[in-house]
What does this fold into?
Amino acid sequence: MPSKAKPVYVYYPDNLGEFLQLRRRKPDALVYAGGTYILKGTETRLVPLPQEVISLQWVEELKRVSRTDRYVELGAGCSLARIVEVGRNVLPGSFVQAFSTVAPMGVISLATIGGNLSVEDHVLSSYPLILAADSRIELRRHGNARWIPAGRLRDERGQLTFESGEIISRIRVPLETWNVQVFASFGRPYIWESEPVVFAGLAKTDTGVVDDFRMVFSAHGRILFRNRELEAELVGRRAPLPAREAQSFIRRLEGLLAETTSSAGSRLSSLQRRRVLGSARRMIARFSG
Ligand SMILES: Cc1cc2nc3c(=O)[nH]c(=O)nc-3n(C[C@H](O)[C@H](O)[C@H](O)COP(=O)(O)OP(=O)(O)OC[C@H]3O[C@@H](n4cnc5c(N)ncnc54)[C@H](O)[C@@H]3O)c2cc1C
It folds into this structure.
């Protein structure tokens, strides 16, 4: 006799309050945003889902985008395509480039920024940029809301730091003028064999001095690299940067890459190291002599 598939109950709350209450009552239910990661690799019509699913589809509060003089606030339920559309003349150009190239158009019109930041096992493409921009993230659960710096969304092993019942509700991206912006994505962040690297670099150098410099990259196994000491080495230096100083920075980075390991202890492959170094060189070349 063919075995009967268990029914899946899908809840569609139509506002944030209702969503958070449901989440409290059903802590094991799966939060479903665009579904592009949850359904990734599913080839049959029968989708393996847990017994209870809470969809964000009708929660309009999570789809809002607002702007002040100092920052843009993105609702976690905004699709990457919508962020590209509304952010074109507002967000740093590298955000628009990053979000529009993360995946095919059909995928980015469904995939949400909240979902992209919340995949437990992999650091996906938006996080390095969100981190480099010193963004802040709002986490909510029933009866509580808190803002954290983006760097605290994951711990030193790369694991998400959500507390029970929390979801990402908003992402606040500071509006600053970066005259050097580099975003580069190699391989697929969740496919180890593709030797993935996502590189994000932002710098301000248009006053003849390096006023600010930030560099973040992610790789397989939740590797996340940001070294503020290394960044600080360039801040305050003359721009264009003398070739000798640029080379010494790259050598220092090379040394750090050799020591970088994933949470499971694996190292960057030589191709991954070349990918990072090539992106860093490309960034530095934009303001060196
Ligand atoms: C062909 C293809 C290529 C792709 N290439 C890339 C790529 O190169 N880089 C890349 O980054 N991604 C890539 N993706 C994946 C896609 O970009 C991400 O899967 C997407 O951003 C996830 O968002 P989602 O809304 O679909 O999340 P979902 O699949 O709905 O959810 C993902 C996870 O996040 C949780 N979640 C969702 N929203 C929230 C929230 N607000 N708060 C807390 N938890 C939440 C869910 O419970 C689930 O665990 C690709 C996908 C496909 C199909």
